[in-house]
Write a structure and sequence with these properties.
Layout (H helix, E strand, L loop, with lengths): L10 H5 L9 H9 L2 H10 L6 H17 L3 H13 L3 E3 L5 E3 L3 H22 L5 H17 L11 H15 L4 H10 L10 H7 L6 H12 L2 H7 L5 H17 L5 H4 L2 H25 L1
Helix pairs in contact: 2-6, 2-9, 2-11, 4-5, 4-15, 6-7
């Protein structure tokens, strides 16, 4: 597989560093920890309980490096693999697990693609089928950066959705860690680095930040996942979520770039624009 770094013009360059991604960060972790190997590894080795936003900050920094660090992206992917190599054990049901199990490693990666789709469906402009195909092709490129075994990556978009539905139906479970993640997030405050305009959306009248985080997480999960976890979701709640999503979709494009993008992404995008300006000036000078 191609291990080319990302750059301007790619869909990940425009989406992976947005603060909006915080809105699906919780649901991504729930989906990931419903895989028994991931759930066991996170239960034994993660700091999501003691330092939820610190853990998220480190995760988001790593994700941004995959996309915005150029040649440093594959290096960050290799660092993650080395970090996860020692993580193994036996879960509460006597099942052996390893963090680098091919299926589990791929599932963690591929949930990010599904969450990008959900993010734009609820909090932006839904992708067209062609955009989804392009984003999935880029997701396979990202899989190469993360050293996901190619055999674990569905070949195309149609194969991905079959894979996703099969994983939800056959492999995911109401794992204690996933249920614990949902419980913990109800007491989690708004992210400390969230820009003020988004913070106001995070804490609407009558809802604490933790409860709001839980509401967003449950609402954006696929309905089949909610059923498997035994989570209640009403038509009224769906309407509330849609109204909120519309507000986010309207606000996000109007934000200054420094408030729309996380720091690593913002500085990389700014530097790329500067490089392009220098190249244009140099080209104009040579043509004069």
């Amino acid at each position: 597989m191609n291990v080319e770094p990302f750059g301007p013009g790619s869909m990940h360059w425009d989406t992976a560093g947005e603060y909006r991604n915080l809105l699906v960060a919780g649901s991504a972790l729930v989906l990931q920890t419903m895989h028994p190997a991931v759930g066991a590894a996170v239960a034994e080795h993660s700091t999501y309980k003691d330092d939820p936003w610190g853990r998220l900050e480190r995760t988001l920094a790593s994700v941004q490096k995959w996309v915005y660090a150029g040649p440093g992206g594959p290096a960050e992917g290799q660092r993650l693999r080395e970090l996860h190599k020692p993580i193994s054990g036996v879960d509460e049901r006597g099942r052996h697990y390893h963090a680098l199990n091919g299926e589990a490693w791929a599932w963690v990666h591929l949930t990010l693609f599904e969450r990008f789709i959900a993010l734009n469906r609820y909090f932006g402009t839904p992708f067209t089928r062609e955009q989804e195909k392009r984003l999935y092709a880029e997701s396979r490129q990202l899989g190469a950066i993360l050293r996901v075994p190619e055999r674990e990556l569905p070949d195309d978009l149609e194969a991905f959705w079959r894979y996703f539905d099969d994983m939800v139906a056959e492999r995911l479970e109401a794992h204690p860690t996933a249920l614990d993640v949902l419980s913990v997030m109800r007491g989690t405050p708004a992210p400390p680095g969230l820009p003020a305009p988004l913070r106001r959306l995070w804490t609407p009248v009558g809802a604490g930040a933790g409860e709001f985080n839980y509401f967003i997480t449950v609402g954006t999960l696929p309905s089949a996942v909610r059923r498997k976890l035994g989570l209640r979701w009403t038509a009224r709640e769906e309407r509330r979520l849609r109204h909120l999503g519309h507000a986010v979709a309207m606000l996000t494009p109007r934000l200054p770039e420094r408030l729309r993008y996380m720091p690593i992404a913002y500085h990389a995008r700014k530097a790329a624009r500067g490089s392009r300006r220098v190249e244009r000036l140099s080209s104009a000078a040579r043509s004069a």
